[in-house]
Amino acid sequence: MTGLVTRFAPSPTGLLHLGHAYAAGCAFGAAKEAGGTCLLRIEDIDETRCRPEFEAAIAKDLRWLGFDWPEPVRRQSDHLAGYTRALDRLIEDGLVYRCFKTRREVADAIASAPHEAGEVYTGAPLPGAEERSLLDGGQPYAWRLSLKAARARLGANYDALGFTVEALEPPHEAQTVKARPKLFGDVVIARKDAGTSYHLASVHDDALQGVTHIIRGVDLAGSAHIHRLLQALLGYSPVIYRHHGLLTGPDGKRYAKRDRAVTLQALREAGHTPDDIGALISQHIAQGHILRHEDMHG
After folding, report:
1. pTM for the whole thing?
2. I need a surface site. Which of 23, 37, 159, 228 has the fewest CB within 10 A?
3. Rounded distance, CA 226 to CA 244, Å?
C-alpha cells in the first residue's frame, strides 16, 4: 500500500451506533479523499466482552453504509504472539517492570505522591527476592512502562519527541505537538493474564500494517503522547494524527453501545437508508450535538 493508509478499528463489544458511523466516515472518507486505503481492524483483546456476533454485525453495518476494505481483516486475538514478542523486547531492554499493586494501592500511591507528580502513577521494579516471592505465590501483576528507564534509553531524544496533528477538514493544516508521556505516568503495557494492552497492540499493529494516519475520536487524542514514546522505543515510524468530535444526544451525553435506539442495526430495521444516516450525522453537527476537543479539555 502507498499513500495515505488509515484504519477503522472497533472493538466487538456491542453494536455500532450513529457515533461509530461518523467515525467510520471520517476514516474511510479521508482515505477516499487522498486516494489511499482505509483498513478494517478488529480490536478484540478483551476476551471477556468481545463477541463473534458483534464482529459480524460490524462488517454488515459498514458494508451497508457503503464502505469497503482490503482483506483479510486483522483480528488482534489472532496475533497475540506478535504482541508478546514486542513486550519481550521491552522486557529485554529493561523498559518495563512488574507492578503487583492493586488498583486501590495504585490510587493510594497517587494520592500520597507530591502534588507536582500529578494524578498518575510512577513506580520502580521490586527487589529481586521480593519479586520472586510474589511470583512464586502466584500474585497477579501488570507490566508497566518505566518513564525513568525510557528517558535513560532515549537520552536527549526523549525530550525532543513530538508528533504531527492535522486538522480534520481540508486543507488539513498541520502542527507539531511535543510528546508529554509524563501526563500518563508508568502506563500498563500488559498484564499477567493478558499479554498486551490497547497501547501496545495498537502501536504494534499500526506499524506492522503501514498506517500513516490515525483518524480517531478526541477522547483518544491524549494517547498519542504515550504512543509516540512506544514508537520510539520499539523503532517504529511515527504517524500523523487527526481527531474528530464525538456525536451526542440532545442531552449532551456521547452515544454509547448501550444506546440501542441509535444503533445502526435499529436504524436500518426502522427503514432508514445510508443517506438518512449521513443526514442525521449532518444534523447533529449543525445543531452542535458533538463533543469537540475544547469541550473535553477545556
Report:
1. 0.93
2. 159
3. 19
